[in-house]
Fold this protein.
Amino acid sequence: MKIIAPSILSADFGNLNQDIDMINQSEAQWFHVDVMDGVFVPNISFGFPVMKSLQKRAEKTLDVHLMIVQPERYIEEFAKAGAHILTVHIEASTHLHRSLQQIKAAGMKAGVALNPHTPISSLMDVLEDVDLVCLMSVNPGFGGQKFIPNTLQKIKALKTEIESRGLNTLIEIDGGVTLDNAQSLFNAGADVLVAGNTVFSAENPKATISQLLALSK
Ligand code: DX5
Ligand code: ZN
């Protein structure tokens, strides 16, 4: 099954409930939730107050992407705040294997995100422990950036590795996903496409979500 995860980073925070309801009513299966600390990335987004609003109102999987240093400090708190999937950056995790076990022990699925310059070979010794690999297709920090084409070959190589090991690990692509590149990303082996700007700057966000999903068929 292919999945669309609209990124609420691009939502209208003055009318957040309205955008949450739009996603609830759409064909999207997940909410993608970008938490930034202004240290790991050059931007600060939001934290637990927004998680609380989502927890109350969102009716779909909360896919939380932590762009923060020392993410292991907040695993329990995000579990309590309703995260279903918790993704930490490999570049921010000194003891990644331990963090992955802690995420699962807290009842969540465990994700690892890789910046564009980080090779997938850095994952080889933990791949069995990972439920989702988030390949960043932009440098994290902001919505609305341009897709980095090198991501395509990373998807293919990672997909081959996952299949050769007989794993169910999901590949998520985050950044610069558009109606023009979604099909090639799905074809290369992506399971989940995050979409911020493409969805929220569209005249009809709900229809755009359907169009993105249709590109997987
Ligand atoms: C970037 C975030 C992305 C972002 C994607 O640091 O991790 O999830 O919201 O936004 P678009 O789809 O606009 O590139
Ligand atoms: Zn993200």
